[in-house]
From TrEMBL:
Protein localization: Cell membrane
Annotated Gene Ontology cellular component terms: plasma membrane; side of membrane
Function: VSG forms a coat on the surface of the parasite. The trypanosome evades the immune response of the host by expressing a series of antigenically distinct VSGs from an estimated 1000 VSG genes.
This protein's record includes keyword Signal: yes
Domain Trypanosome variant surface glycoprotein B-type N-terminal: 8-377
Biased composition (Basic and acidic residues): 395-415, 440-457
Domain Trypanosome variant surface glycoprotein C-terminal intervals: 422-538
Entry keywords, A to Z: Cell membrane, Glycoprotein, GPI-anchor, Lipoprotein, Membrane, Signal
Protein name as catalogued: Variant surface glycoprotein 317
């Protein structure tokens, strides 16, 4: 911003001390040079910050790599489906794949490196088959990949929209400077020609000129050139800049289109040499048009000389912007243009090149929104990559889900009374075996243990199972009142498992018709089941 202020307003004390006709339009030329350089070069904001763009590319690559290295065998071996092909021998279509998948894209993912805790370069992602980690992790990786693929497509679309709008912006900026013509394409080949200027100075610059403001190029010549080709060079271009001896030695005139083209060339050479080039953006357009607006009519006048509409010094009395350097009557009068448009919301739009710059501003505003959207998309991909990394760690170190075909065996539940009955015969093999429900396990007929036979005194635990429903000898199911159910836990020591508790859900069965008092082991099963359900139901 400071450089912009200097660019617009800085006129050295030496310039201000010059004699009449020297540098009197220097401030106005500064403003025009800034606008002209900006429009000519049309330097646009970079659509993607270099660091963010590279981070995005790395993130999308890593997500693809994680998805590939944890994918099913078909995808891992063949890659994504690229289309369809005829089945061998006919009979319909089948998926087509990239034959170079393994040696190209997959190899790129397999060759990615990272540093381990010792600083050694190691393979970043190892193959992890889906069978080696929880199915829920595989589902989440799939979701992340689908979101990332959609996001990548959105980024491509936004990039295309930004690119497609760039030429239209440059073209409109060049039209503000050079004028509208079929020759203006919106590229480096654009330049000033006869379509940029009027037939002579009177048509383009004077108080009576209806074509004032048709192009910025024409107004720039009006600001510095004489109306006739015969005026003395010593009192010519110095009115705009006497410090640049190369420029001030030029004879500038607007006596014809050809003379104007030559004069404009000298002016632009000075502008590009002495002034920087502002970026073409909405803020700079606003600032420069504000400076232009404030400089119109800055030189005082007398009577009804319409000095309010003059840009440049002009003659103090009855000045008509005649292009006469001897009397310093060099300026552009917008009297015919602005004087008839004071009722508009912004009368300045009656100046054609100003209106064209405002068109550029509108296109730039759209582009700036597209750039913001793209930056959000790039950041979102980087965030997704961080999530994918954590899921890869789950896959790398997780265990597969339990196979329901091989259930975990449940511990036997023993009936305490039957156990006590058998223990009475622990020193007598014959008595033990004659008891019917006991079997002898010992070294001799008198040395060993008498225990219940397998299947005898053993019960499958249920939510209301009497003895097995709680601790030994506790029938949790008999309690119908919550206080009585919880009273069974009075003797439980701190840190030990509760004996009984109220339950309303049994794993594998569902919700009970009414709450019951059951073994605390069912409370644990219930908690695990609900936790798993909640985890699967999390929004993703």
């Amino acid at each position: 911003m400071n450089s912009m202020r200097y660019f617009l307003l800085a006129i050295t004390a030496a310039q201000l001390a010059k004699t009449t006709n020297n540098d009197e339009n220097a401030l106005e030329l500064n403003i025009f040079c800034a606008i002209a350089n900006m429009a000519k070069d049309a330097k646009l904001e970079n659509a993607t910050a270099s660091d963010l763009g590279q981070d995005y590319e790395d993130a999308w690559r890593d997500i693809q790599a994680i998805y590939t290295m944890t994918s099913n065998e078909t995808y891992y071996e063949k890659g994504p489906v690229t289309g369809e092909k005829d089945k061998a021998g006919g009979g319909g279509k089948e998926p087509a794949y990239d034959s170079a998948w393994k040696t190209n894209k997959r190899k790129e993912f397999e060759d990615l490196k990272t540093k381990d805790f010792t600083g050694k370069q190691v393979q970043k992602y190892l193959r992890r088959a889906p069978s080696s980690f929880p199915q829920l992790t595989a589902i989440k990786i799939q979701k992340i990949y689908e979101q990332a693929a959609k996001l990548n497509s959105d980024v491509d679309q936004t990039t295309q929209q930004i690119s497609a709008g760039e030429q239209a912006i440059v073209k409109a900026a060049h039209e503000a400077l050079y004028g509208e013509d079929a020759a203006i394409k919106g590229d480096a080949s654009d330049g000033a020609d006869s379509y940029s200027f009027q037939a002579d100075h009177g048509t383009a610059c004077k108080k009576s000129a209806a074509a004032a403001g048709a192009t910025l190029a024409s107004d720039m010549v009006c600001l510095c050139a004489s109306g006739a080709a015969s005026q003395n060079a010593d009192t010519n271009s110095k009115i705009c800049d006497s410090t640049d001896t190369t420029f001030s030695a030029q004879q500038l005139d607007y006596s014809s289109q050809r003379g104007a083209i030559t004069a404009f060339g000298h002016i632009m050479t000075s502008c590009s040499k002495k002034h920087s080039t502002p970026e073409l953006n909405t803020a700079n357009i606003n600032n420069l048009l504000h400076a232009f607006r404030n400089a119109i009519g800055r030189h005082p006048g007398k009577g009804n000389d319409d000095h309010t509409y003059r840009f440049g010094k002009g003659k103090a009395a009855s000045g008509s912007c005649s292009g006469e350097h001897g009397t310093a009557d060099v300026c552009i009068s917008y009297a015919q243009v602005l004087g008839k448009n004071t009722g508009r919301k912004d009368a300045l739009t009656a100046i054609k090149w100003v209106d064209k710059l405002l068109t550029v501003k509108g296109k730039l505003a759209t582009r700036e929104q597209q750039i913001k959207r793209k930056q959000h998309q790039l950041s979102a991909m980087i965030t997704l990559a961080a999530v994918a990394e954590s899921l890869y760690e789950e896959a790398a170190h997780g265990r597969p889900q339990a196979d329901t075909k091989d259930p975990i065996p449940k511990p036997d539940k023993v009936d305490p009374p039957q156990t006590k009955a058998c223990e009475k015969h622990k020193k007598n093999k014959t008595a033990c075996e004659n008891a019917g429900k006991c079997e002898w396990k010992g070294k001799s007929d008198t040395e060993g243990n008498c225990k219940p036979k397998e299947g005898e005194g053993q019960k499958t635990q249920g939510p209301n199972d009497g003895t097995a429903g709680g601790a030994a000898g506790v029938d949790c199911g008999k309690h119908q009142v919550q206080q009585a159910c919880e009273a069974e836990n009075n003797d439980v020591k701190p840190g030990h498992k509760a004996v009984c508790g109220r339950i309303d859900y049994v794993d594998g069965t569902g919700k009970l018709p009414r709450p019951e008092c059951g073994s605390s082991s069912f409370l644990v099963n219930k908690e695990i089941s609900l936790m798993a359900l909640a985890f699967v139901s999390l929004p993703f």
